[in-house]
Structure formats: structure tokens, C-alpha cells
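Working notes for the structural subgroup meeting. M.R. asked for a predicted model of this chain before we commit to crystallization trials. I am recording the input and output together here so anyone reviewing the notebook later can reproduce the run.

Input as submitted:
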Amino acid sequence: MGSADTIPTLVEWAGGTEAFGRLTALFYARVPEDPILGPVFAGMDPHHAAHVAAFIAEVFGGPTGYTGNGGSHRAMIVRHMGRHLTETQRRRWIDMMLDTLDEAGLPSDPEFRAAVVGYLEWGTRLAVINSADGAVPPPEGAPMPGWNWGPPGGPYRG
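Returned structure, recorded in C-alpha cell form:
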């Protein structure tokens, strides 16, 4: 964890990358049985949960386990393109993820949860935008997002 004079990253506060591994393993174990999300993730790669955990942990200030294994923000966006995600699917994903945060034992303090909810809202809304017809992927080398305890900055301008 950060020293007394520094603010810990969200990953440090959550208990390390293992916390996000628990979270995504529990979450994606439930997805196939969900009537709203099951069809979206049909045929899901067995390593998907670990892949998403590495992505989230890196975004939340953890090690580069996602980009260090060949992942990129562009690749994550491209995976959503053409999938025509709906608002109903987006909201169900968030609802299930919030329930799973508790089961996985991630911190429940208001500051951590506010940061996580902010990221989930931001990321899922981008996923819906990027899944629509006509969405354009970011350029090669687009930086990974970085999320912390505060807001991300100004509005998304597409």
C-alpha cells in the first residue's frame, strides 16, 4: 500500500490484483445463466475473466498485466465494435458487477465505491457507443485509460 504521505491506487486499496481476479471470476461464472447477458457472452473465451481483471487492475493503477501481455485500449474497444449493446444489457452488467463487488470482498467504503461506479458508468457507456454501427476505433497506440479517486476530466467528445 502507499506510504502514509501518499494516496494508494485503487488496486492497492482493493487488496491487489488478486481482488480483481476474484471479482471477475465470480462475475463471469454467473453471466452464462443470466437471461440478459448470457447471449452477449455466449462462446466466451475461458480466459475472459482473467483478461478483464488484468485490464481493470491496470486501469486502476495496478501493474501492466494487460498491456504487458499484448493487450491495448484499442483492442478492448475493437472487441465491442459491431456488437450492438443495449442500455438494458449495459445496466444489467453494472448491476451484476456491483452485487459481485460485495461477494468478492472488495472495499465498501464510499470513496472506493464511488470511484468504481464512476468507472463502470464511463466504461460501459463507451462500450455501448463503440458497439454501434459506424463507430470508429481509436488509433493504434491510443493510451490505456487511467482511473483514480477523482473524476476523469472533461466531457467525452467522441
